[in-house]
Design goal:
The complex is a heterodimer of chains A (304) and B (237). Helix content of chain A is 42%, strand content 23%. With 304 residues, chain A is an alpha/beta fold. Chain A has two domains: 28-112 and 215-303, Periplasmic binding protein-like II (D-Maltodextrin-Binding Protein, domain 2, 3-Layer(aba) Sandwich); 115-211, Periplasmic binding protein-like II (D-Maltodextrin-Binding Protein, domain 2). In chain A, the strands form five sheets. Chain A has a five-stranded mixed β-sheet, with helices on both faces. A three-stranded parallel β-sheet of chain A has the order 4-1-5, sandwiched between helices. Chain A starts with a helix and ends with a helix. Chain B has a single domain (5-222), classed as Orthogonal Bundle (MetI-like fold), CATH 1.10.3720. Helices cover 78% and strands 0% of the residues of chain B. In chain B, helix 1 (5-53) packs antiparallel against helix 2 and helix 7 (178-188) runs antiparallel to helix 8. The radius of gyration of chain B is 22 Å and the shape is flat. At the A-B interface, helix 1, strand 2, helix 3 and helix 7 of A face helix 1, helix 4 and helix 7 of B.
Chain lengths: 304, 237
């Protein structure tokens, strides 16, 4: 008994110490909440991919980093900002909408994606986008993922409704299917991918043009000087951000560029097709670190 | 919905295929469980000893400790231990933070199990030990603690069943334990959510069963034949 006890204590000390010493070296840690298709995805055997993650990898390559130094850390969405703020990760890449509130505690790259919020309802509910958000459904409740702009929007703009916050978007969809809520608000691409799971049951009632720009985020003051490189890398990959009248920004993608191909591959095809295409082309990115060849092959495979 | 035959069959195939990925998560739960139980046992024993034998000052301190760690929700403790130190420039790895937060919390509960056991040893035993010339400290370590540890095992099997499940909260500090990995399945197959969660339930049933079975065996093995505890408390015995 005594020996066993001493053994157990010694072993756990080693475990604790081991964990304590496992500090990252000169790695760049990217925090992302995986999965959130098609921005963040994972293969059946646990490899991370998705629009955000491949963009970050491509940015790293064109800015002269080695991909071995880019570590993707799967982190719960509502803790990513804290994780980056506290220096436990260098970049947050998880479909973050650039908001003034968030910009108080972190710095954003230039926008890389324009997203709107989709309102998903049950086909048989007889609701429309207005009545669903005005509390005319049977439960007077709508769902959104905690910490998302969809949640904030519903909380601020819904009339006579309760907003249920979910840890994770698909559980909101499950509640919708089970008729515990009347609608779910979520970014359009993710909503499209949930419709694919329940094509007979669910539909998108409408899009709220929130004109949200996604950005990558770093700690306030950009301590590692990553933002200029990211913005420069986006231009190299084929995305230009032009100011328009009225303070808006316009995202212009060069046809045939890496950016163009990644958009084609990730937005439109089903998740299964995206995954198959990524698996077929990933070595070009991860091994050869050839972003042009990777993006071209990925888009071709995904859309064929 | 998951009871539809085809869904069930494809579902089981999908889950079987994802099993290695889930088990990598379970490994994190088990490592965490192991480390937090040991930390909890060591600190909990100390707190209980202080509470029973530490005199007024240390006794109050120990009670305060048990009060604080039993009051704060586990998820809040995880946040405090993980993000708190970085406010002071100290980087604490997620596993370490989770062990500290959940382990210290468990120590507060374990201390109360052990305190109850210490107080269940009839006072006469202490008096007998002292009358044989043992010092108080020696009597505590040689007479009281060995018996109290035995009595505690039943309470620990309860605590074990409870902390096994606490390990699933560690996702908030970025540990990709089994429950978080379920999302990898449900994100691809929304209709398999029930089946995936049932799988996790089964895994935890197994974990709890194994742990309690082990503790039960330990309890039997360490039982002192013929020893009877006085009913109804300590002092008056």
């Amino acid at each position: 008994m005594k020996k066993l006890f001493v053994g157990v204590v010694a072993l756990s000390m080693v475990l604790l110490l081991g964990a304590g010493l496992a500090f990252a070296g000169d790695k760049y840690i990217v925090a992302s909440d995986i999965p959130w298709a098609p921005f963040e995805m994972v293969t059946a055997d646990g490899q991370f991919f998705g629009f955000d993650l491949d963009i970050v990898r491509c940015l790293a390559v064109v800015e002269g980093f080695n991909l071995d130094d880019v570590v993707i850390k799967n982190t719960a969405f509502d803790t990513i900002i804290d994780t980056v703020k506290s220096g436990k990760a260098d970049i947050g890449a998880s479909g973050f909408t650039i908001t003034a509130d968030r910009a108080k505690s972190v710095d954003f790259s230039q926008p890389y994606y324009l997203s709107n919020q989709a309102v998903v309802i049950r086909k048989d509910s007889g609701l429309n986008i207005v009545s669903a958000l005005a509390g005319q459904g049977p439960t007077k409740k709508i769902g959104a993922q905690n910490g998302t702009t969809g949640f904030d929007w519903a909380d601020n703009n819904g009339i006579g409704i309760t907003v249920n916050g979910y840890e994770y978007y698909p559980t909101a969809i499950l509640d919708l299917v089970n008729k515990r809520i009347d609608a779910v608000i979520q970014d359009e691409p993710a909503s499209q991918s949930s419709l694919a799971a329940y094509p007979d049951l669910l539909t998108i009632a409408g899009i709220i043009n929130t004109n949200e720009y996604f950005g990558f985020l770093v700690a306030k003051g950009d301590p590692k000087g990553l933002l200029p490189m990211m913005n420069d890398g986006m231009a190299k990959l084929g995305l230009s951000v032009l100011p328009t009248a009225g303070g808006m920004q316009k995202l212009v993608v060069t046809p045939g560029s890496v950016w163009d191909n990644l958009l084609k591959g990730y937005f439109g095809p089903t998740n299964d097709k995206i995954e198959a295409a990524w698996l077929a082309s990933k070595d070009l990115l991860l091994v050869d670190q050839d972003v042009e060849a990777f993006a071209a092959k990925f888009a071709e495979e995904a859309t064929k | 919905m998951f009871l539809q035959r085809e869904v069930l069959i494809t579902g089981i195939a999908v889950i079987a295929q994802s099993m290695p990925m889930l088990l990598r998560g379970v490994r994190i739960n088990i490592e965490l469980l192991f480390a937090l139980l040991v930390l909890g046992l060591l600190v909990g024993t100390l707190v209980a000893l202080l509470q029973v034998y530490g005199g007024r000052f240390f006794g109050t301190l120990a009670s305060g400790y048990a009060w604080i760690f039993r009051s704060i929700p586990a998820i809040v403790l995880l946040f405090l231990f993980y993000f708190g130190p970085s406010e002071f420039g100290v980087d604490i790895p997620p596993f370490f933070a989770a062990v500290l937060a959940l382990g210290l919390r468990s120590s507060a509960y374990q201390s109360q199990i052990f305190r109850g056991a210490l107080q269940a040893i009839p006072h006469g035993q202490m008096m007998a030990a002292r009358s044989m010339g043992m010092t108080r400290i020696r009597a505590i370590f040689l007479i009281i603690i060995p018996q109290a540890l035995r009595i505690s095992i039943a309470g620990w099997s309860n605590e074990f069943s409870s902390v096994v499940k606490d390990t699933t909260l560690a996702y908030v500090v970025g540990l990709n334990e089994v429950l978080r990995r379920v999302r990898i399945i449900t994100d691809r197959h929304y209709d398999l959510a029930m089946l995936a969660y049932l799988t996790v339930a089964l895994i935890f049933l197994l974990l709890t069963y194994t742990g309690n079975w082990g503790l039960g065996r330990l309890e039997k093995r360490l039982r002192i034949p013929g020893l009877q505890m006085m009913r109804g408390g300590t002092r008056e015995a």
